[in-house]
């Protein structure tokens, strides 16, 4: 008998192995995603059905939640709140990307006196609990007369306050060959042209990651708008959703779930559109053979 | 008329107190291809970067095409550089890569296109213009890097080990191409390499650097025939020169006698200042030794190892009475020799080298006259 022949159940081992692995992954994945499915399912249920069964497939699908939810219980429709969110998020993302890239480039490529100390300070701000800053910042913006405007929500981003993003981009820049930038200098670029024409296109994956993170975090941000915004007409989605729980006695959960689904959509869509940049390494082929 | 193109005058460079370039003066003439060669860390790349303007000298003066450019911006020096890593812009097509410098200069698009086409044709890149660097082979990338330098029509081309990332056969091919290109364009070029074969084949003039100083500068064959010191002698040539420890016995007007453990050897030599009894080194290139019969020749020993390369054979011979490692002898490819054979070697005195205890050459053979 040959020693290499496989007999009996061992022959099926790879199949059993795959079955167990995928079974486990699918099972746990489903558990993790269940609340999300439940929310989406709940959005299409009527208010009585939501708490009647733990299943997420609606027995009598209805879009009532969306139509009523969109109108909201206030004088403004959900459109206003979505637009308000965008008025905060878009400038915030743009300012974050521009300031973080410029500051990271400075740290990564220029021999500034005291660079190590400055970098250590920047990293220290990452560790600083955000809540510590709430009161001094509030007092400062009150002095500026910026309360009940969007300015306190995005103007700070113009100064690269998110140390984490700066760090992320610095790490990405450090992996780039300096030769490429030197070649650009020899071709006649000044530092700013090197950054915009050569470095930025190459670190696009990092820039997109930063933009995406900032977009999602800002969409979900509840605390900052709550502190600085007082008029309902300026509320973003996060506050509007909370408000609809507060104001009515009998909460229409299907409307809240429906609006939550809509609030979730921009982040999800953006994520899937930009996903390929997370994996794609643009630098491949830049140097060596 | 001042035809010299690059002049370095007492250039020094130190990085945080550490001297990397220790006072280098050099002139690269118009149309000349000068190769900087030396072991790693000798400062050859730093010297090139100083000429390029990517580093600023600590002291000294750099002149290109008659202008003092010591502190000028790299793009204002009339130099173009080909990097070791090619340093292509990964997000641009070959066409955009080559035309980038012209675009920064603000040249009209149509004109850029014409110039890029012309350069691409010269380098046989015409069919690749719309590809990204990642879709090119190593040799093609290197050609794009050269094209990017050519399109700017610089006064001086700078090459920083341009072939070291290519495989052996491609390296040979690109070496020939660069030599051809230089012959056609006649552009002043400075070329850095650690590969002395590249240096020997490409250079009009080789500059051997060691520890931030110039050891010797001159035409390749002059460096090969008349190395000024032990460092240049061992660095230039492959396989390297054999060095034997000897003591000086005495000198005539046109010959020098040295004592070895195998007896005295007399070499034809002029202009040698010799102190009898001083230690010295006898330098013998593998090809200046030949086999001879017993009783003839000046050296004898046993064969340690034989490397047959087909056309030629290298024999490693352990000399009797010498502590030095075995010497290498270049022989005919078909030579009838086995390991452990006893061999007798004759020295071609005209091609032997002698170095004093300080490493400097002692005189020279009568037929290798000093060049003007």
From TrEMBL, chain A:
Biological process, per Gene Ontology: transmembrane transport
Record keywords: Cell membrane, Membrane, Transmembrane, Transmembrane helix, Transport
UniProt-annotated location(s): Cell membrane
Regions crossing the membrane: 20-40, 88-108, 117-141, 153-173, 194-217, 256-274
Topology class, membrane: Multi-pass membrane protein
Annotated GO CC locations: plasma membrane
A Pfam family: BPD_transp_1
Residues in ABC transmembrane type-1 domain copies: 82-274
Predominant subcellular localization, coarse grouping: membrane
Family affiliation: Belongs to the binding-protein-dependent transport system permease family.
Protein name: Oligogalacturonide transport system permease protein
Organism: Asticcacaulis taihuensis
Taxonomic placement: Bacteria, Pseudomonadati, Pseudomonadota, Alphaproteobacteria, Caulobacterales
Automatic annotation (TrEMBL), chain B:
GO terms of molecular function: ABC-type maltose transporter activity; ATP binding; ATP hydrolysis activity
Keyword presence, Nucleotide-binding: yes
GO-annotated cellular components: ATP-binding cassette (ABC) transporter complex, substrate-binding subunit-containing; maltose transport complex
Record key words, sorted: ATP-binding, Nucleotide-binding, Sugar transport, Transport
CDD domains for the chain: ABC_MalK_N
SMART domains: AAA
Domain ABC transporter: 6-236
UniProt record similarity statement: Belongs to the ABC transporter superfamily.
PANTHER family: MALTODEXTRIN IMPORT ATP-BINDING PROTEIN MSMX (PTHR43875), MALTOSE_MALTODEXTRIN IMPORT ATP-BINDING PROTEIN MALK (PTHR43875:SF3)
Protein name (record): Multiple sugar transport system ATP-binding protein
Organism: Asticcacaulis taihuensis
């Amino acid at each position: 008998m040959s020693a290499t022949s496989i007999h009996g159940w061992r022959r099926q081992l790879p199949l059993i192995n795959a079955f167990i692995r995928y079974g486990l992954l699918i099972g746990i994945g489903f558990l993790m995603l269940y609340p999300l499915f439940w929310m989406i399912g709940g959005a299409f249920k009527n208010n009585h059905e939501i708490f009647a069964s733990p299943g997420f497939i609606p027995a009598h699908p209805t879009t009532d939640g969306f139509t009523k939810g969109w109108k909201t219980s206030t004088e403004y429709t959900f459109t206003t709140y979505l637009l308000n969110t965008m008025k905060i998020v878009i400038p915030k993302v743009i300012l974050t990307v521009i300031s973080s890239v410029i500051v990271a480039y400075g740290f990564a490529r220029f021999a500034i006196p005291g660079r190590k100390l400055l970098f250590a300070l920047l990293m220290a701000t990452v560790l600083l609990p955000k809540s510590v800053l709430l009161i001094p910042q509030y007092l400062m913006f009150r002095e500026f007369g910026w309360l009940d405007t969007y300015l306190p929500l995005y103007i700070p981003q113009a100064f690269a306050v998110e140390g984490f993003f700066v760090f992320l981009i610095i790490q990405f820049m450090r992996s780039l060959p300096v030769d490429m930038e030197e070649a650009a200098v020899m071709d006649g670029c000044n530092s700013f042209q090197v950054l915009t024409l050569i470095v930025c296109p190459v670190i696009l994956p990092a820039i997109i990651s930063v933009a995406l993170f900032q977009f999602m975090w800002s969409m979900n941000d509840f605390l900052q708008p709550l502190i600085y915004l007082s008029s309902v007409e300026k509320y973003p989605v996060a506050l509007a959703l909370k408000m609809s729980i507060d104001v009515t006695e009998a909460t229409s959960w299907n409307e809240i779930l429906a609006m939550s689904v809509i609030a979730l959509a921009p982040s999800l869509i953006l994520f899937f559109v930009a996903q390929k940049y997370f994996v794609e390494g643009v630098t491949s082929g830049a140097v060596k053979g | 008329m001042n035809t010299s193109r690059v002049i370095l005058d007492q250039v020094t460079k130190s990085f945080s107190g550490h001297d990397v370039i220790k006072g280098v003066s050099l002139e690269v003439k118009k149309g000349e291809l000068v190769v900087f060669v030396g072991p790693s860390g000798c400062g050859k790349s730093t010297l090139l970067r100083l000429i390029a303007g990517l580093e600023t000298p600590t002291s000294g003066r750099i002149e290109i095409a008659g202008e003092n450019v010591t502190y000028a911006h790299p793009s204002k020096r009339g130099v173009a550089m080909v990097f070791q890593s090619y340093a292509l812009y990964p997000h641009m097509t070959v066409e955009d890569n080559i035309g980038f410098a012209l675009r920064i200069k603000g040249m009209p698009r149509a004109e850029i296109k014409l110039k890029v086409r012309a350069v691409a044709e010269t380098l046989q890149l015409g069919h690749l213009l719309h590809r990204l660097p990642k879709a090119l082979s190593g040799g093609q990338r290197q050609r794009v890097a050269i094209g990017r330098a050519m399109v700017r029509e610089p006064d001086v081309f700078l090459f920083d080990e341009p072939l070291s990332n290519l495989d052996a056969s491609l390296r040979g091919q690109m070496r020939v191409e660069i030599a051809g290109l230089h012959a056609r364009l006649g552009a002043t070029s400075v070329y850095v390499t650690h590969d002395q074969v590249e240096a020997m084949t490409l250079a009009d003039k080789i500059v051997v650097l060691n520890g931030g100083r110039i050891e010797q500068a001159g035409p390749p064959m002059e460096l090969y025939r008349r190395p000024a010191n032990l460092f240049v002698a061992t660095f230039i040539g492959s396989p390297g020169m054999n060095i034997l420890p000897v003591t000086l016995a005495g000198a005539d007007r046109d010959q020098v006698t040295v004592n070895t453990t195998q007896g005295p050897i007399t070499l034809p030599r002029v202009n040698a200042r010799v102190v009898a009894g001083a230690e010295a080194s006898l330098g013998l290139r593998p090809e200046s030794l030949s086999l001879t019969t017993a009783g003839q020749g000046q050296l004898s020993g046993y064969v340690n190892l034989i490397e047959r390369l087909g056309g030629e054979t290298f024999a490693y011979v352990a000399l009797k009475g010498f502590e030095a490692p075995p010497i290498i002898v270049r022989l005919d490819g078909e030579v009838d020799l086995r390991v452990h054979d006893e061999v007798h070697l004759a020295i071609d005195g005209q091609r032997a080298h002698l170095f004093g205890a300080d490493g400097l050459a002692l005189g020279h053979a009568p037929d290798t006259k000093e060049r003007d």
